[in-house]
Design a protein that fits this description.
This protein is an alpha/beta fold. It is about 50% helix and about 15% strand. Strands 3-2-4-5-6-1-7 form a 7-stranded mixed β-sheet, sandwiched between helices. β4, α4 and β5 form a beta-alpha-beta unit. The model has no long low-confidence stretch (mean pLDDT about 90). InterPro entries: DNA_Rep/Repair_Clamp_Loader, P-loop_NTPase.
Length: about 325
């Protein structure tokens, strides 16, 4: 089964596989886990096993995300449409609005598609990524189809946390938690996916077994370069070297998004130090204080404080670690 390709999470896999084998799988499944844990991949695995129990080319394409996609234009309620993908039995929906929010046109387009087109013998799967980004209007549009779905349609939803999902959506799903694996297992899995073993080991330690994050960093040169900058910043923090930190951060003063991304990776490095990872430059009390400084800086960036001010204060406070 495709779900066997998911690392760890034995209880989740066993429960879902038993439901699929006895055809007792509920029509709505919510997979919950922090960003980078692979909830989207898990959802595609379940969809593939539901639609194509025997596997094959279509199942492989679905795992790669090559399915239909519901899209819309912001501010235009009637602009929603479903773009045809290689896998016609599956439709994916993810936020397209400001901040990654769902557009109601996407949900209504998906709803029309599954009600107005004939189902294949395999059925139909709808993949809804990060449903915590739904506003009340798009959630209400989704509820209309979740309450009385067409026969043979399986909804697979993902979210970063259970509490962030609207109660009306949450109550209509059976929920499963997706957990990280150990850094050692993460290293082994990512190396098997073609990632350099040394890089896999480093990123698995820094990101605490979050397979999706490790693969994303390893496969994106810009992302890997950002992590190296976060490590440089952590080395400056360990040395209480505010000057070196300020020079490094100066390149991010005019780009709030890039600054937030760097500080997020710096926080991950510091958190690895809290777990006593030897790959983290900061350890113990220094790591704890570094995490707090990163959290404070990220909060200030989110509150629209000038990035130059935020980064200058952050660099200056590193000398107190």
């Amino acid at each position: 089964m495709m779900l066997d390709r998911m690392e760890g999470n034995a209880e989740l896999k066993t429960s879902v596989q038993q439901m699929l084998a006895t055809r007792r799988l509920t029509h709505s499944v919510l997979l919950v886990g922090e960003a980078g844990l692979g909830t989207g991949f898990a959802a595609r695995c379940i969809a593939a096993d539901y639609l194509y129990p025997a596997g094959g080319a279509a199942a492989e394409a679905l795992l790669r995300g090559e399915c239909c996609r519901a899209v819309a234009k912001a501010g235009k309620r009637d602009s929603g449409t479903v773009e045809t993908g290689i896998v016609r039995e599956a439709i994916s929906v993810s936020g397209m609005g400001s901040g990654g929010k769902y557009l109601v046109g996407q949900v209504t387009a998906m709803r029309s598609e599954i009600f107005n087109t004939s189902l294949s013998a395999e059925g139909r799967a709808v993949l809804l990524y990060h449903v915590e980004r739904m506003n009340e209007e798009s959630a209400n549009a989704l509820l209309k189809v979740m309450e009385e779905p067409p026969e043979g349609v399986l909804f697979l939803l993902t979210a970063d946390s259970l509490a962030s999902v609207l109660p009306t959506i949450r109550s209509r799903c059976v929920s499963f938690a997706v957990a990280p694996v150990s850094p050692a297992d993460c290293t082994r899995y990512c190396a098997a996916q073609g990632v350099d073993k040394k890089a896999a080991a480093l990123y698995s330690e820094l990101f605490d077994g979050h397979i999706g994050t490790v693969l994303a960093v390893a496969r994106d040169e810009a992302r890997a370069a950002q992590v190296e900058k976060a490590l440089e910043l952590a080395r400056a923090a360990a040395a209480r070297d505010s000057y070196t930190a300020a020079v490094l951060l100066a390149a991010y003063e005019k780009d709030k998004a890039a600054a937030a991304a760097l500080l997020t990776d710096f926080r991950a490095v510091a958190a690895a130090g809290l777990r006593s990872s030897p790959r983290a430059p900061v350890q113990g009390t220094q790591a704890r204080q570094a995490v707090r400084l990163a959290d404070a800086a990220l909060q200030r960036l989110g509150a629209q404080v000038n990035p130059k001010v935020v980064l200058s204060v952050f660099a200056a406070k590193l000398r107190t670690l």
